[in-house]
Amino acid sequence: MSRNIIISTVLLALFGLVGTALVALVFEGTRERIDANIEAATLASLNEILPADRYDNAILEDTIKLSDPLLGGDDRLVYRARREGEPVAAVFTVVARDGYSGNIHILVGVQADGEVAGVRVVSHRETPGLGDDIEAARSDWILDFDGRSLESPPREDWAVKRDGGIFDQFTGATVTPRAVVRAVRNALIYFEDHREQVFEPLPEAQLAPDDEDEDEDEDEDAAVDDSADNDEPHTDAAGAEIDE
After folding, report:
1. Beta strand residue intervals within the chain, DSSP E
2. ∠ at Cα 11 (6, 12), nearest 5°?
3. 189-204 burial string, b = 16+ CB within 10 Å, else e?
4. Sign, Cα dihedral of 147, 151, 153, 159
5. I need a labelling partner for 243 at 20 to 30 A (CA). Which of 32, 149, 215, 233 fits?
6. What is the structure's pLDDT at 45?
7. Whole-prediction pTM value?
8. Alpha carbons 242 and 195: distance in angstroms, whole number
9. Which residues in 120-154 are b (16+ Cβ under 10 Å) and which e?
């Protein structure tokens, strides 16, 4: 009896090991394709906010991580768009932590002059049919941010209409749009106060190989010239509006 149990246990363990190995092999074989799909989806989302013809750098590689409550927490990724080395826009990955049903993850594009290039909600858990109108696929509400800045409208008007601002709330849902408006406004405030840090050039160690080769070529040319010239769930502070 005990021998049968031992044999069964060994066989189950072997099946488990084989199954784990097969899963690992499948994952390894598809990982590159998965990574490529994620990269393509991310680039498509960025290009909804900032068309590809606006910049000429590798925007997925020209990134920086920033930590600040205005951005929703630590290590928030920022994509920097440049053209001929000059800043064009920054796309912040911000988190609105005061959504009705939890965190709302948002892309906020800010042009170099401080105007909103575009806003897209990446993920959320808001109430279907009420709070999900923050999605571009469901309504054009999110497009109302385009072209706005901290001067247009004035900072005090960056709120939903119920709070005295200019942005629409949804029928039966105020908490969700309020959280998004606040997150976009906070991203603009952060950008205004930290513009130079946002567009800080990448360290040489992070330059793409082609860029490094170009820099080396330039250094060699300069050397020649020198030798010749000697040269979570919603916790609204007001606490009251549970209208979703």
Report:
1. 63-68, 73-83, 86-96, 104-111, 116-123
2. 100
3. ebbeebbeebbeeeee
4. positive
5. 149
6. 87
7. 0.72
8. 37
9. bbeebebbeebbbbbbbeeeebbeebeebbbeeee
d(Cα 161, Cα 178) in Å, to the nearest integer?
A: 9
Evaluate the omega torsion of the peptide bond into residue 233 and state whether it is cis, within 30 degrees of 0: no
Cα(111)–Cα(91) distance, integer angstroms: 9
The number of residues in the chain equals 244
Q: Are 80 and 62 a contacting pair, CB within 8 Å?
A: yes
Closest CA to 180 of 234, 129, 128: 234
* Residue 148 pLDDT: 97
Give the span between the Cα atoms of 200 and 106, in whole angstroms. Answer: 22
Report the alpha-carbon distance of residue 185 to residue 180 in Å, rounded: 9
Helices H / strands E in the chain, number of each: 3, 5
What local confidence, expressed as pLDDT, does residue 140 receive?
95
What DSSP string runs through 112-178? Answer: TTS-EEEEEEEE--PPTTTGGGGSTTT-SGGGGGTT--SBTTBGGG-SBGGGTSSB--BTTB-HHHH
